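REQUEST FORM: STRUCTURE PREDICTION
Request ID: SP-0412
Submitted by: Lab K.M.
Chain count: 1
Length (residues): 667
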Amino acid sequence: MKKVKHFLGFLVLVVLANTSIFAQTPDSLFIVGSATPIGWSIDKAIELTKNPDSLTQFIYDGPLFPGEFKFPVNRQTDWQQDMYMKDTAAGKFYHHIGGEEDDVKWVIAEGEESVYHIVLDFHNMTIEITKIETPPAPDSLFILGDATPIGWSIDQAIQLTKNPENSEQFIYEGTLAAGDFKFPVNRNPDWQQDMYMKDTVLEGSFYHHIGGAADDNKWTIAADEGGTYKIVLDFNTLTIDIKKIIETLAPDSLFIVGSATPIGWSIDQAIQLTKDPDDSNIFTYDGILVPGDFKFPVNRNPDWQQDMVMKDTVNEGSFYLHIGGEADDNKWEIAEGDSGKYYIVLDFVTMTIKITKLGATPDTLYIIGSATAVGWNIDQAIQLTKNPENSNQFIFDGELVAGEFKFPVNRQTDWAQDMFMKDTVNEGHFYHHIGGEEDDVKWVIAEGEEGIYHIVLDFTTMTIEIDIVGGIPDVLYIVGNATPIGWSIDQAIELTKNPENPYQFIYEGTLVPGEFKFPVNRNTDWGQDMYMKDTENEGHFYLHIGGEADDNKWEIAEGEGGTYRIVLDFSDNTIVYTNVTSIAAVHSGFSKITVYPNPASDRLHINLSEENAGSVTIYLLSGKTLFQAQINSSSTDIDLTQLNISGFVLIKVSTTSSTEVFKCIVK
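STATUS: Completed
RESULT:
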C-alpha cells in the first residue's frame, strides 16, 4: 500500500510540473511590426499557428521584410497588452509585461527579406528563426481570368513583365474588371501547368499551385472596384502587391519656372521635375530657390499657352490646374531672406504641395532610438556636437547596438517636434520631417553591426556619413616578449576595463625591451582577432582579423623598460602608453628633475635643477587631469591639500630639454 501511495504522489508531482509549464503558454499569439506584411497595424496583427504536435509551441510561416517585429498576445489597439520580446541571450525571448517601457524587437536587415519559419517554444522560452530559401522565380508568368481583358482564354493569357531591377519580381499594369484572376506559368491549353494562386491564410501572399492539383484559389476584383491596376509578385518573399491606379489630372511631365528659379522666366529652359518611379501622381523638385515667384508648366512651349499648376489661394497647401490661355496667374513666392535649397512635392491625387526648405541648420540636434544608449526615452536623447569648424555639421561619436535611430531637434516628450529622418530615395541623404506628420523613416543597425560609430550630418548638402569606428571587445589581453609572460598566449594578461569609461581598457604592469600586441582571447591556435599598431596613424590601433598576415606590434626599445600604464580607447581607436617609472619621452642628456617627497601629504616640491621654466600636470591613473601649471623658476611647491586627493597619481614635468613622468603616492 505504501508503494502505491508513493507512486501516486510521483504522478501528482509530474502533473503539477507539466501544468506550470503550460500555464505560461498564452492562448493565442500574434506577430506585428514594420518587418511584417501588416506593418504596425496591431488591429491586423497576424495570428501564429499553435503547433498541433506541441502544446507549448507557436509557429509563423510567412514573409518578413527589412524592419522590426515582436509578438503581442492580442490585437488590442492600446498597445498595453503583454508581449514576447527579444532576450539578450541568443535564441531566447522573454515575457514583456503590458505597460512596461522595455521594447526589444527582432530586426530583419536590409537584403534579408524572404519567407521565414519561426517557432516560439514556451517550454524553454526559445525562438528559432529560419530563413526559407524560396524557389526561384519562373522564367515567365501570365495573368488570366474573367477580371482580365482576355477572360479565361488561356492561349491568350497576358504575359507579365519581369522587373529589370529585380529578377525575382513580375509586374502587371493594365485593366481589371469585376471577376477573378490567377497566374499560370505558360499558355498551354490543357490547364495542367503550374500556377501561382492566392494564399487564403496569409493576407498579401501567394503560393505555388502544382499543375493538375484540385486547389483553385483565385483573387477577386469586386463589382465596384474595376479600373487600372498595378500588380507586383515578389518571389523572394512570395508576396503580392495589388494597387489600383487612381486616374488623376497628373501630366506626363512637369516643369518649374519663375524669377525664384535658377533659369528665371526663360520657359524654354524650365527645369523638369522628377516623377516618382513608383507613383506617377507624384512629382518632386530638389534645388535652389531665391526671392521671387514660381509656377509649374507642363511643357517648355515659348507661347505660354500651356496648362500649368498654380497656387490655390483659398486652400493652404493646395494647387489647381490652370487651363492654358486663361487669365488667372497665381504663383508661389519665396520671400526675402529665404533663399536656399528646397524640396517640393506635388501630389496629383490629393492636389497638395509640400514645400520644405533644406539646409536650414537647427540650433540643436539629438539622437534617439532603440539603437542608442537611451532607447526611446526622448527626454534623455543624446545631444550631438556641432562641428567647431563647420556650423552646418553635427557629429555623433558613440556606441550603437542593433535597432533603430533618428534625430529630433529637442527633447520634448510630446513627440511633435521636427526631426531629421532617413531619405530612402537618395542614398546617404536625410530629410526634414515636419513635426506631427505621419512619416517615420529611421536608420537601422542590423544584428552583428553593433559598435562605436562616427556620424556626421551636413545640413548644407543634407547628407549623412555613418562610419563604424570599431566594436568594443568583451575582454582584451596583452601578449609578447615585452610582457612578463612572453609569447605564452594561454597565459596572456587580461586588461582591466575602465569602470569610469566603458570604451577604455587599461594595462598597468612591467614591460621590458621587446614587442607586444592585444589578442581578444587566449586561444593557442593564434587565429583570434587582435588589436595591432596602426603604422599610418601615430597613437592609433586597428582591428587585425584573425588569420590575416599583418602583424604590426608595438615595441619597447632598449633602455626603456619599466612599469607602464597603457590605455586603449575604443571610442577613437587611440592608444596612450606611459612609462610611470622613467622618462616618458626621449630627451638629451641626463635629467636632473626631482620630485619629492614620495609619499607626499600636504606639499610637493619640484626642482628643475639647471632649467628656469617648465610645466607640471598631475593626473589620476584613470587619465583625468587634476592640476596644470606653468613653472617660472628653477623650483616650485604644489599645495596638495587643495586637490582633495589620495592614492597614486602621475606627475608629468616638462622643460625645454626633457619630459619626465613620476608615479607618486599622496596620503
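NOTES: The helical segments are 2-23.
Reviewed by: T.R.
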